[in-house]
Amino acid sequence: MAANETKRFTREEVAKHNTVDSLWVIIDSRVFDVTRFQNLHPGGASVFTDEGIPGGDATEAFFGLHRYEVLERPQYARLQIGLVQGEEPQIKGGLIPGALSKVPYAEPTWLTEGFKSPYYKESHRKLQRAMREFVDAYIFPESQEFEPQGKRPSQSVLDKMAGGTAHQGIQHPRHAYGSRKHLKGLTLMGGIVAPEEFDYFHELVVSQELTRCGGRGYGDGLLSGCVIGLPPVLNFGSPELKARVVPEILSAKKVICLAISEAYAGSDVFGLHTTATKTEDGRHWIITGTKKWITNGMFSDYFTVGCKTEDGFTVILVERGEGVSTKPIKTSYGSSAGTAFVTFDHVKVPVENTLGEEGGGIFVMLSNFNHERWVMCCINVRSQRLVVEECMKWVNQRKAFGRPLHSLAVVRAKLALMISRVESYQAWLESITYQMCNMSYKEQASRLAGQIAFLKSHMTRGAQLTAADAVQIFGGRGITQTGMGKFIEHYHRTVTFDALLGGAEDVLADLGVRQAMRSMPPDERL
Ligand code: HEM
Predict the structure, then answer these.
(1) Which residue ranges does the record annotate as region Disordered (predicted)?
(2) Residue 481 Cα, ligand 1 centroid: separation in angstroms?
(3) Confidence band (pLDDT; 50, 70, 90) for 278?
(4) Ligand 1: distance of its center to the CA of 383 in Å?
């Protein structure tokens, strides 16, 4: 904090500055001269005349109304003229880079002091620490600045994620599903994880730590389109195509996205209208149609496109060029994600860009869905946890009717449900992740599609309850984009995204039941 902490004042000295002409206040043992600031104060000048405030200790009043970060902003930090004699600030706030939160339930159990987990090894813990430092240092500050402005993540952050020194290769493992061949020979995260050791728990750690950026649109702007757009290339592209495209993507020089959903159809891939027809010489596809809600589409160079072909449904990699245009779609979440409406107008694409078999697109897509939904679960439960942390802090520091909010049974009841939800979702997620680590990709598709679908639909339903309860706890601040409730407002506004991406809740839950029914032994009776 750029503040003057060298001078010391007794509380008696501070108390003498209690008029509009010389107005001091104490906040957490820090002495502020607000004489000139009072008329600029966003909360009005009158608050400084409230009983006990002029020349007095305003700590409790302050933290009931402001986030700690207010004191860290340079324009306010410079109002500090010293500290109270014989005292030191006690309140912890702001971001301590790399640190774990001490707030109960703000971290998953495996990161909570005194708890053990069978799932995480030393390399997961090291990765978590490195990711946390990285996110706190580079991603969180930019996310907080760019999300409200709708700006996409900067190239310098993407470059750091893709390569560079200590953080090499955060991007690579995010596409690591199925085959991990593309990790071979790489130094991941400065050597913290050996590529052959990298498993789904490492990937879970990367996804959950990135989620702490606290900006839903910005978080998706961190090339989450690649997480779903690149795997079909990695797993179904020809060696030549991969050799050309994959390094550009993983180095963050170029961007790829998945372009399946349309205004006409979402999960129903056979209802799509975008067509791909062969040229007479059979060497090219001509693609025509539109795609809607395409994450990262605005800044993508490559589009993994689902098309209707003569043989059914085929997935084709389209490069931005003649006939490809994108325009932004304004959604409830920030435009930092580059969500686009994409138009393909007679786009000529070499047949070598076909991913998988012609007419075999459904297999390409289905193989993507489980991993995609599992990543969404990693993200969703981590953002619910952020909401729990915000609520825990708020109910502790905010007073109503002369008592902290947590003294109200109705508030505690809401917290109980929020905590129970987040803990159970994380536990189920870890159980599924453990199964994924011990199954082939094919086995995962047949055994875990239902489990993952259930988890996601169950979790996002709960997420919406948590969002609504958090708004009730924060009151008006829960619907205000700045100040105390800013994360709650953001979460409540964007939570439905998680509930729709990768398949609507009812569709997913139904998928799980249908998969279970297919496995019913024919000879079972009551
Ligand atoms: C160094 C001292 C202070 C600074 C730098 C400061 C700064 C601010 C800022 C930046 C805001 C805008 C909201 C936000 O960004 O959180 C705000 C709002 C407010 N402040 Fe202060 N403030 C100070 C002291 C106080 C004190 C001592 C009180 C009460 C006794 C107070 C009462 C309020 C109120 C009522 C609001 C409006 C809150 C709302 O709309 O939710 N402020 N203040």
Answers:
(1) 145-174
(2) 15
(3) very high
(4) 27
pTM for this entry: 0.92
What is the average per-residue pLDDT within 61-68? 94
In the structure encoding, which two tokens stand for residue 514, read together?
A: 């249908």
Residues whose beta carbon lies within 6 Å of some atom of ligand 1: 25, 32, 34, 41-43, 47, 50, 53, 58, 61-62, 65-67, 70, 76, 79, 482-483
Q: 352 falls in which pLDDT band (50, 70, 90)?
A: very high
What are the tens digits of pLDDT across the range 126-175?
999 989 998 999 999 999 999 999 999 999 999 888 865 444 567 665 65
CATH topology of domain 256-359: Butyryl-CoA Dehydrogenase, subunit A; domain 2 (2.40.110)
Q: How far does residue 217's CA lie from ligand 1's centre (Å)? A: 28
The closest of 376, 60, 360 to 208, measured between CA atoms, is 376
Is the pLDDT at 93 greater than 90? The verdict is: no
Q: How far apart are alpha carbons 23 and 45 in whole angstroms?
A: 11
Class in CATH terms, 368-518: mainly alpha
Instruction: Report how far residue 449's alpha carbon sits from residue 441's, in angstroms, rounded to the nearest whole number.
Output: 11
List pLDDT tens digits, range 103-130. 999 999 999 999 999 999 999 999 999 8
Characterize 46-85 residue by residue with b for buried, 16 or more Cβ atoms within 10 angstroms of its Cβ, and e for exposed.
ebbeeeebbbbbbbebbbebbbbebbeeeebbebbbbbbe
Pick the CATH number of 8-84 from 3.90.1150.10, 3.10.120.10, 3.30.365.10, 3.40.50.2000: 3.10.120.10
> What mean pLDDT value characterizes the chain?
92
Domain assignments of the chain as residue spans, ordered by start: 8-84, 111-222, 256-359, 368-518
CATH 1.10.760 fits 111-222, yes or no: no
